[in-house]
């Protein structure tokens, strides 16, 4: 649709559009005529004048290095003008249309005319929408031209969509110089248009020849140059658009841009549409896209000798802890933290927490300690008596482990053995 | 204050009580069901057999976790760690900073003393013993030259001492085992061949605290780290390289240590040459080595495609050597892709798919890198909102555990994008994600929390209507977030757009409490908003009260601080607010301030004033007003004189004064 429209616009600019009228149904034709006359009735000289200006502009730009396509962005502002120019043309070429009828049947096809048609009707309805549509069309062109740029400055990313863009580009050229290819120098339609334009001027023949000369010059521009200019144009357009899309590499979305232009709120409100399409999108979520295919799943890692966490692992854990929020949010969480640090008695409450080494020791080992007195203590006497008191005390002491109790008794054993002679002296 | 506290507390208790009850109600029917099913079962199989349920071992935190899950955040209470002392509970962001810093430094000081003088802290009261409360041993215990001593020094992270000891051991002809040497290499490479800064020595913290509040950038958080790296670089032929060269048969671990050290301290190309060395020795690298090399890859190549090719090459070598990548590999690759320009966009998703195929679940850091690839800060956003949406579709409702130091960046990155694209819907989704499971831990430290909330709140102010904004405002401020003066201005703008200027007195109270009462710009904006429109009597009255309060703020030069200075606009705004509330006497006081501060009132204000005076019919004051006006030599004086002459009934004397004034001004013209 956009391309069709675009082709149409080009044809307008090349003076071919006047042929359209012949294809229109008579009612449409009348409607347009009435519209045009309503606008341009007051003075007939003026539309003619503007149309010639229009031609001039065409020529000037063709001689300038930009080529007339370069004018495009400028004319974004003056889009309405193009439209009115179209209408003017139709009026101007009213007289010549019959002679061109045969030619147009070659050049024009029905569908091409139709969008233009609707365009015109729409214009009568709301100029703004029409302008918007045209802007959309411009945008399409902008993006395609831009995409050609990388072919000049090659980047490493592969671009599968290179080919259609090329074709689009060549299509523009084709459209621009459609007729000229058949004839050696000039398209008869163009020539006819020139003569029509010239007929309005006082010095008819001179004007016609001048116009034709200019047009030939235009045609002489070699194809290759044109291509280069097209790229040049791309640069210029890209520069012009910098404000809106500095990151020219990603694909622009014309629809959203039009909306952007339209409501001017500074942000796009396409959330609704995206929401609707959510289901569709989810199916082709980028997270399920193709993979790199470097690794094969299920391959087990070679068992590397692992000697516990290395310094690096500890540091990684430390870094993670530091970047995350470890602050407790309530008392219970603080207690969890304390539990982890080992500062808090553990839940569920266990009386024997921290006594793991004693867990396997039966209670009689704690209580019946007489067996430790047998070997080296005297069987009776004050020492024996003393030691019995000691083990009674130890039996009741829950703070000491069995091992410590044994050590306690051993200490006394050593002590009494050292003092053996003293004891014997005193009592014997 | 105290009453509100107690009220809050009661409310809190009530709430948790209710929750607990709900819990119990929920669990009772369950339990009875279990009982009945347990009773049924034996009846079916065999009536005699009694099935004794297996003893369940609870983890030590299970009870506490269950209890903690019953407590919700109370938006009227301050943060838990600030609740110790109501008097000290911070009310402004600077107080909060001071509080948390002093808390932290107090802990550090205590630790420092315990570790420096361990002999005074030997008494062990705790039963069972609590190791973390005992002083750490910082001095090496083993004096002789042996491998055990070397291991001890490695564990105590004494780089210099360990290297010296290693040399002594070699000189003495003792061979050191490869494992210990590798540990030593790890130690040297980790600290870049210099002793680590003592953790317990109170060091000068870099003051990144200056203005956390004013539109902070993520850059600041990273700055100190970058400094550390710059400070220490890999030195040519340092001890690590020397010891490595002494090894007769280095194993992959030795290579790994060396390469990781080199990458950490910026010797990137050297790391690659060591890697080539490793390949020449027909050894296999481990996953950490590859991770380090991938980190280094963007540093050694210039062009985007070369960087990426190198990374792909490394990944292929991993596959060849049958090394299984881990989550950190994925994150490192994505992080490297951030520096590969457009290639990042095309390759990021294939990388993630690859890792998913290897059943590596991306962490928040992966998503953070992904977002950073697609949304460059500062670049215009165009048509990529869907990437954030895709990511949110992917992560929504999941609970994440911290696995990567970059995990904590996700939330602020996501919200930055929401703010850039003005996407409220996604912002709500991000905020929702924050509430899932333990995700709140991944919001990061106070600094990052502040950024997050500032972004969230300014987005709210921009996109939502005032009721919603205020709902969030009551929820977040000040229990989790102390807004900066900029954010308060956003809030004022939101009030303005929704025409709820009657709420200004309330907001002013908050502004004062948040310590922004002395921000000139904010206060002036507030005054302008107050003066701009006429309201009904009641609102006007409250605005006038508020205005007088603001005036006090200007007057308060206590403690030697002059905070605000009067400007012509602030003076006239304040005066006109007072006039609108028919507070002629207060307004008259204000008019005197013009003179005192060398400001000139506007014609409009004077006319307003005159109208107000006329309503009350105070002729004397009208004349006085004209005299004051004449004192300012305003060009409007004649007009005012005219008005007074026409609209008031003047006594003879007053008429004389006026005509004198008229003459004066005429002459001066």
From TrEMBL, chain A:
Bias kind Polar residues: ranges: 54-65, 98-108, 247-258
Compartments reported by the entry: Mitochondrion
CC terms in the record's Gene Ontology section: mitochondrial small ribosomal subunit
Entry's Gene Ontology molecular function annotations: structural constituent of ribosome
Basic and acidic residues bias (residue ranges): 66-75, 86-97, 111-130
Alphabetically ordered keywords of this record: Mitochondrion, Ribonucleoprotein, Ribosomal protein, Transit peptide
Annotated region (Disordered), positions in chain: 54-130, 149-168, 245-265
Signal peptide: none
Protein family according to the UniProt entry: Belongs to the mitochondrion-specific ribosomal protein mS31 family.
Name of protein: Small ribosomal subunit protein mS31
From TrEMBL, chain B:
GO cellular component: mitochondrion; ribonucleoprotein complex; ribosome
Pfam families: PPR_3, Rib_mS39_PPR
Keyword RNA-binding on entry: yes
Superkingdom classification of source: Eukaryota
Entry's Gene Ontology molecular function annotations: ribosomal small subunit binding; rRNA binding
GO biological process: mitochondrial translation; regulation of translation
Compartments, as annotated in UniProt: Mitochondrion
Keywords: Mitochondrion, Repeat, Ribonucleoprotein, Ribosomal protein, RNA-binding, rRNA-binding, Transit peptide, Translation regulation
Keyword match Transit peptide: yes
Main location: mitochondrion
Family statement drawn from the similarity comment of this UniProt entry: Belongs to the mitochondrion-specific ribosomal protein mS39 family.
Protein name: Small ribosomal subunit protein mS39
Organism of this sequence: Cirrhinus molitorella (mud carp)
């Amino acid at each position: 649709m956009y391309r069709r429209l675009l082709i149409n616009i080009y044809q307008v600019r090349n003076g071919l559009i006047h042929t359209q009228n012949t294809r229109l149904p008579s009612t449409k034709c009348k409607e347009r005529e009435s519209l045009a006359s309503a606008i341009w009735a007051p003075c007939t000289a003026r539309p003619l004048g503007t149309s010639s200006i229009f031609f001039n502009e065409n020529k000037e730009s063709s001689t300038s290095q930009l080529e007339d396509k370069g004018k495009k962005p400028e004319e974004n502002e003056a889009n309405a003008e193009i439209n009115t120019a179209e209408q003017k043309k139709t009026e101007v070429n009213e007289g010549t249309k019959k002679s061109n009828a045969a030619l147009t049947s070659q050049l024009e096809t029905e569908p091409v005319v139709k969008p233009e048609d609707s365009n015109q009707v729409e214009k009568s309805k709301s100029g703004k929408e029409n302008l918007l549509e045209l802007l959309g069309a411009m945008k399409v062109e902008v993006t395609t031209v831009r995409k050609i740029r990388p072919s000049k400055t090659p980047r490493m990313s592969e671009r599968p969509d290179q080919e259609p863009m090329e074709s689009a580009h060549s299509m523009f050229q084709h459209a621009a110089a459609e007729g000229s290819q058949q004839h050696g120098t000039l398209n008869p339609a163009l020539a006819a248009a020139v003569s029509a334009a010239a007929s309005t001027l006082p010095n008819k023949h001179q004007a016609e020849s001048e116009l034709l000369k200019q047009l030939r010059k235009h045609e002489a521009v070699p194809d290759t140059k044109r291509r280069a200019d097209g790229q040049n144009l791309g640069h210029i357009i890209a520069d012009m658009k910098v404000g809106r899309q500095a990151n020219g590499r990603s694909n622009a979305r014309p629809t959203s841009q039009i909306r952007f232009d339209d409501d001017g709120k500074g942000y796009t409100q396409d959330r609704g549409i995206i929401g609707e399409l959510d289901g569709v999108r989810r199916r082709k979520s980028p997270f399920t896209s193709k993979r790199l295919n470097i690794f094969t799943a299920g391959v087990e890692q070679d068992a590397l000798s692992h000697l516990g966490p290395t310094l690096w692992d500890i540091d990684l854990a430390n870094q993670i802890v530091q970047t995350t929020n470890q602050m407790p949010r309530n008392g219970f969480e603080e207690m969890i933290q304390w539990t982890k640090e080992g500062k808090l008695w553990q839940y569920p409450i266990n009386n024997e927490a921290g006594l793991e080494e004693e867990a396997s020791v039966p209670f009689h080992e704690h209580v019946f300690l007489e067996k430790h007195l047998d070997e080296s203590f005297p069987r009776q006497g004050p020492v024996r008596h003393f030691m019995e008191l000691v083990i009674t005390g130890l039996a009741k002491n829950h703070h000491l482990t069995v091992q410590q109790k044994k050590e306690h008794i051993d200490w006394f054993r050593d002590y009494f053995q050292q003092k053996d002679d003293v004891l014997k002296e005193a009592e014997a | 204050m105290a009453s509100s506290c107690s009220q809050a507390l009661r409310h809190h208790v009530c709430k948790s009580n209710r929750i607990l009850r709900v819990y119990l109600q929920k669990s009772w029917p369950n339990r009875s069901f279990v009982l009945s099913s347990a009773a049924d079962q034996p009846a079916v199989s065999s009536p005699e057999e009694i099935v004794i349920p297996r003893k369940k071992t609870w983890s030590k935190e299970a009870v506490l976790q269950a209890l903690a899950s019953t407590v919700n955040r109370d938006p009227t209470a301050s943060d838990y760690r600030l609740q110790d002392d109501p008097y000290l509970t911070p009310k402004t962001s600077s107080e909060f900073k001071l509080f948390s810093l002093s808390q932290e430094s107090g802990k550090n000081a205590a630790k420092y003393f315990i570790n420096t003088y361990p002999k005074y802290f030997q008494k062990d009261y705790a039963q069972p013993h609590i190791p973390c409360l005992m002083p750490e041993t910082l001095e090496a215990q083993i004096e002789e030259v042996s491998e055990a001593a070397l291991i001890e020094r490695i564990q105590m992270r004494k780089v210099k001492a360990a290297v010296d000891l290693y040399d002594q051991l070699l000189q003495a002809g003792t061979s050191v085992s490869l494992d210990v040497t590798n540990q030593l290499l790890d130690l040297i490479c980790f600290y870049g061949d210099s002793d680590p800064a003592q953790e317990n020595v109170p060091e000068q913290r870099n003051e990144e605290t200056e203005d956390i509040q004013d539109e902070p950038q993520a850059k600041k958080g990273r700055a100190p780290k970058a400094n550390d790296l710059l400070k220490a670089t890999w030195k040519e032929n340092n001890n690590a390289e020397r010891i490595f060269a002494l090894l007769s048969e280095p194993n992959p671990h030795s290579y790994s240590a060396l390469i990781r050290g080199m990458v950490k301290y910026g010797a990137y190309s050297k790391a690659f040459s060591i890697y080539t060395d490793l390949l020449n020795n027909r050894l296999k690298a481990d996953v950490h080595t590859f991770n380090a090399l991938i980190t280094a890859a963007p540093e050694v190549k210039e062009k985007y495609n070369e960087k990426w090719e190198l990374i792909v090459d490394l990944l292929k070598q991993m596959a060849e050597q049958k090394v299984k990548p881990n989550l950190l590999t994925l994150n490192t690759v994505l992080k490297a892709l951030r520096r590969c320009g457009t290639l990042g966009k095309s390759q990021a998703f294939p990388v993630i798919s690859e890792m998913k195929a290897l059943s590596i679940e991306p962490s928040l850091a992966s998503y953070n890198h992904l977002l950073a690839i697609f949304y460059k800060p500062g670049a215009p956003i165009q048509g990529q909102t869907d990437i954030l949406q895709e990511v949110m579709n992917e992560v929504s409702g999941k609970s994440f555990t911290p696995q990567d130091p970059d995990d904590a960046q996700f939330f602020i990155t996501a919200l930055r994008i929401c703010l850039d694209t003005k996407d409220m819907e996604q912002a709500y989704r991000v905020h929702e994600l924050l509430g899932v499971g333990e995700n709140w831990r991944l919001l990061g430290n106070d600094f990052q929390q502040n950024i997050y909330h500032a972004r969230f709140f300014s987005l709210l102010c921009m996109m939502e209507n005032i009721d919603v904004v205020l709902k969030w405002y009551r929820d977040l401020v000040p229990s989790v977030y102390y807004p900066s003066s900029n954010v308060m201005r956003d809030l004022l703008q939101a009030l303005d757009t929704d025409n709820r200027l009657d709420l200004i007195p309330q907001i002013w109270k908050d502004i004062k409490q948040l310590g922004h009462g002395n921000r000139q710009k904010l206060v002036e904006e507030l005054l302008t908003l107050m003066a701009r429109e006429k309201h009904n009597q009641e609102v006007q009255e409250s605005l006038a009260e508020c205005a007088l309060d603001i005036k006090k703020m200007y007057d308060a030069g206590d403690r030697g601080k002059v905070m605000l200075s009067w400007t012509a606009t602030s003076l006239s705004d304040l005066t006109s607010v007072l006039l609108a509330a028919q507070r002629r006497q207060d307004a008259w006081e204000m008019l005197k301030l013009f003179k005192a501060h060398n400001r000139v009132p506007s014609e409009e204000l004077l006319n307003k004033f005159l109208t107000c005076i006329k309503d009350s019919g105070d002729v004397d004051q009208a004349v006085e007003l004209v005299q004051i006006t004449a004192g300012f030599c305003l060009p409007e004086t004649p007009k005012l004189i005219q008005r007074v002459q026409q609209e008031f009934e003047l006594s003879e004397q007053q008429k004389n004064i006026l005509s004198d004034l008229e003459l004066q001004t005429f002459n001066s013209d």
